[in-house]
Amino acid sequence: MKITGLETFCLAYEMPYPLTYPRGEYQSREAVLIKVHTDDPDIFGWGEAAMWGGPWATTTTVLEQQIQPLIVGHDPRRPEYLWEKIYQETYYHGRKGILLSCLSAVDIALWDILGKTTGQPVWRLLGGFARPLRAYASSGYYRRGYSVSDLADDVAKARTAGYRGYKMKVGNIAAAVHAGVLEATPLRVSMEGDLARVRAAREALGGELDLMCDATTSLDARTAMAYADEFERIGVRWFEEPTQPENVAGCAELARRTRIPIAGFETETNKFNFAGMMDAGAIQMVQPDVIQVGGITEARKIAAYAQMRHLGFSSKNYSTAVSLAACLNLLYALPNADYFECDMDPSPWRDEFLRSPLFTFDGGMVEPFDRSGLGLDIDEAALSAWRVSQ
């Protein structure tokens, strides 16, 4: 079996209302999917590359012109080899950022192909730990005309729906580390106003469920410490991306001063950077983004190192059904998998281009499935509703 090429799908969706977080406001959701083809017309693989706010053309150019020539003619059932081949042949141009995002897409697609050729789900090929996953609802953005009581109502709805926890945004304050550059970010609040949001969410969720807070890399270490002090009193499960990922020393100091586990960093890439953060004690909940960190091949190595250090592992899940499937297959395979993130913000891409549901949700738990590959059954005609040209 040989790879014959790859196809890119650029998607766009306009949400019914804008979402604000400490780094800005957005109303459009964008994604790049790929389909890796083989010389067997019945065998292909789906993947996704993270492209948060950049133009589609930069991602598709790297995929089509830089990576595609490196893999055509090779056996797709060797994801570990092809990962290393791409990484080494783009070494001086990549190692982080867009190259790793594009490599993520190809890697995920290769695992999908390997699963299909063996008739096994990817999670079983990765080790098959196969424990049902706790699911938490993820939203809690700042929004225009959205009061603290509105946030509390949404948290209560997630509780009623059976989710085991809820994650919300924090840190949209004047002292955000990038506030002097991103002056146009709306809906800035005081720290006390921000903490009032957290307290309202905690009350709406109830004391037995988990509340997580995500600062989206927006705070300096000392400001994050002030948040963490209050989070200890309120009862927060983890404090996600409190500082910028480059501030390893500051994040490690924060982690030493608080009992709240620090989660991160979905904005970081490759196993070397994650190993450095773990070694420094900067993170206790290891949380990459499988479509940005380097795909399943790289993420499982990070998860293995986290297990060696007795740390929990989760994965960002905030895009399409393809990244969702990659995230699920990875987490199902791991003994140290903690939580599965369920994006609650407007998006048709979690299920509307699938012919059948990817997973079942029962009692706050997501059960493993037995479909081969990533488990996706994608209706390509349905993708046309959101597909755009570069």
From TrEMBL:
GO terms for biological process: carbohydrate catabolic process. Transmembrane segments: none annotated. InterPro entries: Enolase-like_C_sf, Enolase-like_N, Enolase_C-like, Mandelate_racemase_C, Mandelate_racemase_N_dom, RHMD-like. CDD domains: MR_like. Keywords: Magnesium, Metal-binding, Plasmid. One of its GO terms (molecular function) is magnesium ion binding. Its cofactor is Mg(2+). This is Mandelate racemase/muconate lactonizing enzyme family protein. It comes from Sinorhizobium mexicanum.
